[in-house]
Every structure is written in structure tokens, then in C-alpha cells.
Amino acid sequence: MSVNAGKNTVSQIQGRIQLGNTEFQEFRDYLQNIAGIDLGHNKQYLVATRIRRILIDYECSSLAELTRLIKSDSNRAVRQKVIDAMTTNETFWFRDNYPYEHFRKMLLPDLADKSKDSRIRIWSAACSSGQEPYSLSIVVEEFLRSKLGVSSLPLEIIATDLSSQILDSAKQGEYDRLSIARGLSEERLRNFFERPHPDYWRVKPNIRQRVTFKPLNLQESYLLLGKFDVVFCRNVLIYFSADLKCDILKRIRGTMRPGGYLFLGSSESLAGASELFDMVHCNPGVVYRAK
Going edge to edge, which strands form the sheet with 211-215? Predict the structure, then answer.
């Protein structure tokens, strides 16, 4: 590509991107096939906004050209960048609060009593940048501190996400001022974080060591994850089609021990998998108990 051609491409991309119906549909179908994300029929502006930088970086003059690029097996890095760009990774500490309160007050005491027989295992699915699994680990630490004579629990938190880039960030446990401000109290910041640099905080080692991060596409097999007592799968099913949502819920149930608990997002439901769970009211909110 000539220098002038490259400049023209960048200029064109930096302007308003017009996505034709055919190229948008091809991109939409491919994204749903590899990541399960259902963009809907009127998300051209969302796509144009999120992939603009990738189009420039790889000198693609159109969405159709980018789609052809990521379909190639030799361009896995580009494909992952597209998935990362189209995946919503914004999250909060202790989001909605009630799931963590119910976990601490109702579930942890019972699980702690049973932990003599087996290790407590928790799955944070679609964990994004790590706030959810670290929030759970903080709750566990607070529970332990409230119990005289109890200093540890045989407990592990498995945190998974589709985005390898966001997982690499989550493993570091480092958050800037804006990220810290979203749902984290001053007391918890003081007790469970260190500040190695003026621009960011880091989760303390005793909180990080309970969490293991693993890449996982929710459309793929869960067999290697093992069995869980508690599953948090919050605010991710809303991006999937009804059929895929039902399939994922059924397979999540397959990873749960009898009587295990499933937490969904406040705007999510069991869809077609309601026969596999009993609803338990938390007041506010609900949690689902595996039958």
C-alpha cells in the first residue's frame, strides 16, 4: 500500500464509518459464532465506535475487509482484539451488594461447616477485570476475621473470561483511581489494598492468592473446571441469544454440586432452565439453588 493510499484509508476511517447491511450482518454472524455475542439488528453505531481503532491499526478500509482478516486462522491476535473490543468489560466492586451480603451471611457459614469434607469452590464466570472475584475473596477474608480461632478455609475462586487481554490485567490486581472509586469503600481500600505507586492500588497478596484466572469461552466445554458450590454468572447472559443463554445455564448446572447456588445479574433470569433450580429470595434480589 502506498503512503498516500494509507493516509486516505486512515482519513476515511477517522471520519464517520458507514456500515452496509450486508457487511454488518456478516460481522454480526461471525461474532455470534465465535463468542456467542448477539449484537441485535441495530448496533451498527456500536460496532463502528468500538472497532475504529482496529481498522486504523490494520489499515482495513471497511468492516468487510476486517471480517475477512479475522476469519483467517493465521490472524488470531487480530481476532482476539476484535473480541476484546466488542466485549463489555466495565464492572464494579461489590456490584448490587446483596449477592455478596447473602454469600457472607447465609452461604459461607454453611459452607465453612461442610469444608471438613471437601474444598469450597467458587466460580466467577465472565469475571472481566477482576473486581467480582476479588470482591468475593475480600468477603471471605472479612468472614475469617470475624471468626475467632479460624484463620483459613479450604477455598478457591476460579475466575474465567473470554478476553485474554482483560485476564492479563485482572491477574495483576492493579486498579487506577477511577476503577477503585466504583463501589469500593474507604475501609476496604485501607484493609485489602496496598499502594505501590501514586497512580494505582494493588490487591494485597492474601486476597489475590485465593483467585485463579483462566481463559474460557462460555460456548465451549466446562469439563476441566470441576465442580462448584457457588457460581457467579452476572451481567453476561444478557448479551446472548435465548437459545445460547438456556444452553449455558444448563451446562453451568452441570458444574454445580447438589444444592449449589447460582447468582445472576439483577436484570437476568433462568430463561428455559428454570426446572433445574429453585428460587431463593434474598430480600432484595434472588439466588438460585441447584436441584
Answer: 211-215, 155-161, 120-124, 228-233, 256-264, 286-290, 277-281
